[in-house]
């Protein structure tokens, strides 16, 4: 008799299952629009040149060793990360009421923050956008939250934000509920609120005493400008909110598998910092004890050196410009071919992903019949498009819709 005999098979994680299917497909023109990772115009993964430079410098630095980092990670890295998010003139930094904790990429930062809120502050209800990144729900429930709720976000009819529904759902939320907000480049829709809409959102969050937990997985990657992509978080800080923000260096540094991230914490006053830090320390100690150093050292090396920082910004521009170019190309092709429907949303959306408007059946048809791999929600990663495959993808979309 096995202890495991009655265990039910869990459901596959869609995006990873799709990637495996893609790898096993030997169709020559197959296209991978599922993976959320940057690719060059040759369809190749890209290690940022500035990361190569930093890695060489680190490899030659004999003073570095492999001993444990502190439980809350590499402090110089966290400090620079929080500064990059909040901006040099942030009131929270000037008043010493913000700090960072190095965590395992964006996911780990969300998880540590969520577990703190659930187990130390007794929070039970969280809200995520409908739709959202598929992992938010699992991360927060695994962290101890009891109830997952959605707020309206995407209006499929107008292919844009349902701001009225969004605000109404926040108004109906119970006091103290945690609201997950995408700092920029909403995944999967590529559709962000305008600044005026963010002001409305902030005012309901304030009035209803909700807690804002930002997810910042794309700073710099969305617009190509680090400050512009951090505007929303900075606005909330200026408005006096206490908040958490999970930062990921997967996309903007291309450090996907190094699991490099930071949980930025902004409080009302410095008085609360020691207690909050001590409780987060216990959470991390019981979860993975301390984080790995390699990615954090790379980011620290770049953020602390003006010349490398400029190089990094130019690497980010390369990535964001290619994505913006691919949006234009895809829209042009779809319009040129006369694919049914309107395609302005493709260029109006921002960030790595686009919500095409294809439904589940149509998306599956794209995979089965055309070997164009995309999620059943109709989400495509713009990074998988290249000058050589964009026409094929547009033709496939047209065939699917006609
Ligand atoms: N949040 C969002 C919205 C994301 O798109 C991602 C990456 N797909 C993450 C968080 C976390 O990614 P990672 O853990 O690799 O940093």
TrEMBL record:
Keywords: Aminotransferase, Cytoplasm, Pyridoxal phosphate, Transferase. Gene3D superfamilies: Aspartate Aminotransferase, domain 1 (3.90.1150.10), Type I PLP-dependent aspartate aminotransferase-like (Major domain) (3.40.640.10). The keyword Zinc-finger does not apply. It catalyses: L-cysteine + 2-oxoglutarate = 2-oxo-3-sulfanylpropanoate + L-glutamate; L-aspartate + 2-oxoglutarate = oxaloacetate + L-glutamate; (2S)-2-aminobutanoate + 2-oxoglutarate = 2-oxobutanoate + L-glutamate; 3-sulfino-L-alanine + 2-oxoglutarate = 3-sulfinopyruvate + L-glutamate. Its cofactor is pyridoxal 5'-phosphate. InterPro entries: Aminotransferase_I/II_large (IPR004839), Asp_trans (IPR000796), PyrdxlP-dep_Trfase (IPR015424), PyrdxlP-dep_Trfase_major (IPR015421), PyrdxlP-dep_Trfase_small (IPR015422). The keyword Transferase applies. It is found in: Cytoplasm. Residues 29-397 form the Aminotransferase class I/classII large domain. It holds the Pfam family Aminotran_1_2. One of its GO terms (molecular function) is pyridoxal phosphate binding. Its EC number is 2.6.1.1, 2.6.1.3. Its main location: cytoplasm. PANTHER family: ASPARTATE AMINOTRANSFERASE (PTHR11879), GLUTAMATE OXALOACETATE TRANSAMINASE 1, ISOFORM B (PTHR11879:SF55). This is Aspartate aminotransferase, cytoplasmic. It comes from Sitophilus oryzae (Rice weevil).
């Amino acid at each position: 008799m096995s202890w495991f005999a009655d265990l039910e098979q869990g459901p596959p994680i869609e995006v990873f299952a799709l990637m495996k299917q893609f790898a096993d497909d030997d169709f020559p023109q197959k296209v991978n629009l599922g993976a959320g990772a940057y690719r060059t115009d040759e369809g190749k993964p890209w290690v940022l040149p500035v990361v190569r430079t930093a890695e060489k410098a680190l490899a030659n630095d004999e003073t570095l060793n492999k001993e444990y980092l502190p439980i809350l990670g590499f402090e110089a890295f966290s400090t620079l990360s929080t500064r990059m998010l909040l901006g040099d003139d942030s009131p929270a930094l000037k008043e010493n009421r913000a700090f960072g904790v190095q965590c395992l990429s964006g996911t780990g930062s969300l998880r540590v923050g969520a577990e703190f809120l659930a187990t130390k502050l007794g929070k039970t209800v969280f809200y995520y956008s409908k739709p959202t990144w598929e992992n938010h729900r699992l991360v927060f429930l695994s962290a101890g939250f009891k109830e997952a709720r959605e707020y309206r976000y995407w209006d499929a009819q107008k292919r844009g934000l349902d701001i009225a529904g969004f605000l109404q759902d926040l108004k109906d939320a119970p006091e103290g509920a945690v609201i997950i907000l995408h700092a920029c480049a909403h995944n999967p829709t590529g559709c962000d609120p305008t600044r005026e809409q963010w002001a409305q959102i902030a005012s309901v969050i304030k009035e209803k005493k909700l807690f804002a937990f930002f997810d910042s997985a794309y700073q710099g990657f969305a617009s190509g400008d680090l400050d512009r992509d951090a505007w929303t978080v900075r606005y909330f800080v200026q408005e006096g909110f206490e908040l958490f923000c999970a930062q990921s260096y997967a996309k903007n540094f291309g450090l996907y598998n190094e699991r490099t991230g930071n949980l930025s914490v902004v409080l009302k006053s410095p008085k609360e910092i020691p207690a909050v830090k001590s409780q987060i320390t216990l959470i991390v100690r019981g979860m993975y004890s301390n984080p790995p150093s390699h990615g954090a050292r790379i980011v620290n090396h770049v953020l602390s050196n003006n010349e490398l920082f400029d190089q990094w910004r130019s690497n980010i521009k390369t990535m964001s410009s290619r994505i913006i170019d691919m949006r234009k190309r895809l829209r042009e092709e779809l319009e040129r071919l006369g694919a049914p429907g309107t395609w302005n949303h493709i260029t109006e959306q921002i960030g790595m992903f686009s919500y095409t408007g294809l439904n589940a059946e149509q998306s599956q048809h794209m995979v089965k019949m055309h070997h164009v791999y995309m999620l059943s929600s109709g989400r495509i990663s713009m990074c998988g498009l290249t000058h050589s495959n964009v026409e094929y993808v547009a033709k496939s979309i047209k065939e699917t819709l006609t």
